[in-house]
User: Fold this.
Amino acid sequence: MLAVKPLSAFDALDQHFLPLASILTLSPQDTLNLHTNGSVVTVVREGIFKIERVQEDILVAISSSPLILGLPELFEARGEDYQLTALTPCEVYQLDGLQCRSLLDQHQLWREAFHWVSWIYKAQEVRDAQLIGKNSYSQIRATLQVMSEWDISLRARVGVMHYIQQRTHISRSVIAEVLAALRAGNYIEMNKGKLVSVNRLPLEY
Assistant:
């Protein structure tokens, strides 16, 4: 279970970042590059979106606002290209890394920045624990559990098969076989390819 977002830290950072930024409104399927030649901090204030690692075409996460990305890269450049794609209308802005560092110093916001970065790393740790070194069924099971925690409106937007395949790169035939077995056993309920509900999932397949 992922820890609750530190919203007080987000509010403190956003309060000082926003006056120096220009808001972008992304329509569904619009994309935003999260990698530049220099460091950049990206803040999502509204909307639901997905983040992908471009080179390997790996879905890193589907998330809802608010979110701040890029704080660790203020000191160490990211080696991979990441892309944000809006799934609903999103309100986003980006701030130059040097400008961001200056604001953190000026307003003594490093504590809030560290709190937010700690939450991001916790989220990555949870994802790694679900996927790395796990067999196909364990990855599918963990992904279904992640989807079960989404609100109904988000589950209604995302196809189960596509999401699992993008997140894990397990073959579609294996995913289809497992989903069919889980539906037959009444462990999950789906409608038109979307997840309706998850009951107790078996540990083994």
